[in-house]
Write a structure and sequence with these properties.
Layout lengths: L1 H19 L17 E9 L2 E7 L6 E10 L5 E6 L3 E4 L8 E9 L11 E3 L14 E7 L2 E7 L8 E9 L11 E5 L3 E4 L9 E9 L11 E3 L6 E4 L4 E3 L4 E5 L5 E8 L6 E9 L6 E4 L10 E9 L8 E2 L3 E5 L2
Length: 325
């Protein structure tokens, strides 16, 4: 009886041992590619721009999508990667058909097979939006005379450039009779026959690569001011400390700024700004520095402001003065 019990225990231990050594089955999906994206279609195609859209993949390990593109004359090549479920392609040719397909990419950088292929031709349909945010500054900067205009860069990718129009009449219509220039950028410097104290009015129109022209921008205007004359102290003079600059004003009301510095390039130690309507009399500007070094050369200049721009309208050359006891 005892012997039977011992055998039973041994059989039980043998079964338990065999159970512990039973091999477990594992699944390795690291080499399994993600699912192919579905629902790819053309969302928008016009004026050199195409947007494609598709259904987001539901698999949790998909991190994004590779974008492939071809034309009738080129092979399909990867052009970009995105983590979104749409893609915007720009700066395209109007009369070329573009073909797109995409793949899914998971966190292990495994790539799916290709989606369906879609195509579109982004023909030139619409004129550009009109330029916005125009700003202007008449400039007489150390003898260089111009009127500088800038505006916000258009976000459309098929903009070729901008036509610039000028008139001396407010409310003018911008057309071929008053176009004065073209620029690829979003600024223009007008140097054509600029006269002092004349108000010049400007408008801008955007031009796309298909030569469609936008509506005109808002009108902006400014004038170029002369540089004020210096009565006292004269340039390159040695003088005793004084309490007023004497200036010959320009012919229209303006704002004047004088800045004093210790060298020719920077280190301004004193400045003042005066707004005045004085035009035909001597302009006296108080000079109130905290300290001055004797026998040291200081440099100063005058700037005027028309009130149109925060930038100066005229800037004089740099004058020098030495203070003596």
């Amino acid at each position: 009886m005892k012997r039977i019990r011992i055998v039973s225990v041994l059989l039980l231990l043998l079964l338990l041992y065999n159970g512990c050594e039973r091999p477990t089955e594992t699944t390795d999906d690291s080499n399994i590619p993600p699912a192919v994206p579905t629902g790819l279609y053309i969302y928008y195609a016009s004026d050199g721009e195409i947007t494609i859209d598709w259904s987001s993949t539901n698999e949790g390990d998909v991190k994004g999508y590779n974008i492939y593109r071809r034309t009738d004359s080129t092979e399909s090549k990867k052009i970009d990667y995105t983590s979104d479920s749409y893609y915007f392609d720009d700066s395209l040719n109007y009369n070329v058909t573009y073909f797109y397909k995409i793949t899914s990419v998971n966190i292990r950088d495994r790539e799916s097979g290709f989606s369906n292929e879609v195509s579109a031709t982004p023909i030139n349909r619409y004129k550009p939006f009109k330029p916005l945010g125009s700003q202007i500054n008449g400039r007489n900067w150390e003898g260089d005379i111009s009127i500088f205009i800038k505006w916000s860069q258009g976000y459309e990718s098929d903009i070729k450039g901008y036509n610039v129009y000028r008139s001396i009449s407010q409310g003018f219509i911008s057309d071929s009779s008053n176009i004065i220039g073209f620029t690829n950028g979003n600024s223009f410097s007008d140097t054509l026959n600029i006269n002092f104290y004349t108000n010049y009015f400007y408008k801008i129109r955007a031009v796309d690569k298909g030569n469609l022209i936008s509506d005109e921008s808002n009108e902006v205007s400014d004038l170029v001011l002369e540089i004020p004359g210096v009565i006292y102290p004269k340039d390159n003079s040695t003088v005793r400390p004084f309490n007023q600059f004497l200036i010959k004003p320009i012919h229209v009301p303006a704002t004047y700024r004088i800045g004093l510095q210790t060298n020719q390039y920077f280190d301004e130690v004193w400045s003042t700004t005066v707004e005045t309507s004085i035009t035909d009399d001597t302009l006296k500007i108080d000079f109130t520095p905290s300290t001055l070094e004797i026998n040291k050369t200081y440099y100063w200049r005058i700037a005027t402001y028309s009130g149109i721009s925060q930038d100066p309208n005229s800037i004089s050359k740099l004058y020098s003065v030495i203070f003596k006891e």
